[in-house]
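Internal ticket #5521
Category: modeling
Description: The requester needs a full-assembly model to guide mutagenesis choices. All entity lines are attached below as received. Residue total reported by intake: 828.
Assigned to: D.W.
Attached entities:
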Amino acid sequence: MKHTRIGTAASATLLLALTAACSAGSGTSGAAGSGGSAGAGGSGGDTSLSVGLVAEPASLDFTKQDGAAIPQALLDNVYETLVKVDQQGDLKPSLAKSWTVSPDRRTYTFDLVDNAKFTDGQPFTAKDAVYSINQVKKAWTISLKAAMDVVQDAKALSDTKLQVTLSKPSNDWLYRMSTRIGAMMTEKETADLATKPVGTGPYVFDQWRRGDSITLKANPSYWGKKPYFQQVTLKYFKDPTALNNALLTKTINVIGTVQAPESLAQFQGNDAYEIVEGTTNGEVLLSMNNGKAPFNNLKVRQAVRYAIDHKALLDTCWAGHGTLVGSFVPPTDPWYEDLTGLYPHDLAKAKALVAETNAGATPVRLRIPSLPYAVSCGQVVKSQLEQAGFKVQLDQLEFPAVWLQTVFTNADYDMSIIAHVEPRDLPAVFGNPKYYTRYDNKQFQGDLAAADSGTPEQQVTLMKKAARELSQDAAGDVLFVLPNLMVAQKGITGLPKNAITESFELADLARS
Amino acid sequence: MLLQILRRTATLVVSLVVSSVLVFVFMALLPGDPARVALGVNASEASVAQLREQFGLDRPLVAQYLSWVGGFLHFDLGTSYVSRVAIAPQIVDRLQVTLWLVVCSMILALVIAVPFGTLMALRQRRPSGFVLSALSQAGVAVPAFLAGILLVTVFAVKLQWLPANGWTPPNEDPVQFLRQLVLPVLSLGLVQAAVLTRYVRSAILDVQREDYIRTARAKGLGPMQALRRHGFRNAAIPVVTVLALQLATLLIGAVVVERVFVIPGLGSLLLDQVANRDLIFVQDIVMLLVLAVLLVNFVVDLLYLVIDPRLKVATR
């Protein structure tokens, strides 16, 4: 009898638990109601798309949360900006149809589109633009907001005319308006930025299952060209093998970013798949601590640059995919020049410089983060430097926590390897003496400032000059620029070949 | 009996307190600044310092510990440093996912282990018993993630019978949910089954040597009948003990399996938050896991009193 009572109690508890656990893993739900998802597997249905990505956002609020993952999902898809960057790196109209610049280059007047609407039904007007710009200065906490500091005043001259006055001419400002700080948000503040974003874009945020995926649905009242795919699921994978398997088993349709280039072999030559390769803004930098010995000595830095055989390194650690550049400028920037000729691989010269400066006497600490490209390249860099006579101690630091504290905050390192992926980050990485690169060159800083406040033509000339100076001064060595590698099921068109903006644009994708 | 229950409760409480101190100290010792990780690479020193103050990380360690434990006891698990969203709902949601995985794996392990273990014990000196024993030895040696990778390669990628990874909540698409559950549960469950089988086998062998079995056989019962009526209940005690201990192993195994199969469970949440140095989050999860394991062992201790009436009057 006792057994029956216990048995009944146990079964009752189990049933209750089962019913409660039926919604296990549904995570945060979104605004527009998650009803009838067309096959949670993602690739069900012709107008559904599933994209595999690697870094999941921690929150949807990029005004308070740094990191590339949030704008990758939301910028240009849910939120829109006044201007956009195209695949060649040039600025194009978006919410702003056209714009004029005053002769003193301090006042920008934008003509906005008149039919854009937020997903809560409110029309997009110049007042929303003014609000968004002011919010960046007032309420945003991420450090990228500093790009808006140059704005002195923003005024709505009419519903479709916006006037922005800068405190000094700045070429950089208009470019930055194409990044996340230029995201146009509704003045009515109907959104909960962290869980329920509201924008004017071609997609509407639908649902976020933490640890799993973000689902976007096509915006039925979008003002521009309607997107082909009615539902897009962004699925997040931490394991590169799981990502590849997901495409092989048709759980996803596209691998948005290939993390292990050596695994491309299983997709090459296979008619069912298409590999897309382009460039990015991600310079893989072999940084040298310019602030202390031995790398405060130009000759030692030059020795490093001569010692690295960039072609061999790229072939070994990133399967030959990527672009070799000579300075900290990716191929899609307007002032790009191939400066690989400045420091070609020359082991004899490297050995001579090491001997001359006696740089081989003390071991050099190469402290790398635990990221795949850094771990791959670290070994190759170590062996190439040792051939030139350096003694290299290779440390792997947990990323982000330990690397950020040791290398980035405390500059307790001699060399490190990390990819800098923000667009046009030459000033940020080498123009600030307090940054972890500790590079303090007044001439260089002067050129950067003049480039920003000059005319657009002067900007190109001066930035080219600055990039050349930086390379000649060997402030760091760019090992290679990360390739943009994607694999898709055959028939999917419109994939962004070059990943040079902060967003993974979905509106142009279609199935042929 | 009341005394025994009280004593076991006291042990439970002391274990919880010690665990909380240990996990707090460990997280405090780890290098890395939560505020810096939360704000990212581009943040200025000033904003990092401000966030540290907001998180209360500039307070003395004892104050931070007491504030965390105080919240925990009031069921206030706090807010995540990184996502600034309440921790409790995230844990509850992910815990359900891991529970599906762990409970199904345990059931699978039991369903395989009890019959096979008994068979191995009964056929101990015969070739079939030997073969089963060798198989279970091999099973014990295989780590869960390796089993997972092998299963995925064969059944998902090559044969395309089942999905390679992913998770669908059961109320959204029960068929897909079940299909996605098969391989992860097999990975965890088969390895557990191998371990359990050996315990079941040795428990049955021990029981078979007992006098009461000999008496039952002498009375005319067949070997299985004797076992079923008299043997299983006695063999259950060591098996239930091992089951409770294996829960901890299953939870750890689930962490790796969740990674391989991309399942949004508690294990992958824990790994993420350790990397993010989201201290409160990690401490909350670890304490909940410790609580779960200790509670299960506590319940098992009480179960003994039910299974074996002799223990009720044991210590006086």
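Resolution: model delivered.
Comment from assignee: The radius of gyration of chain B is 24 Å.
Ticket closed.
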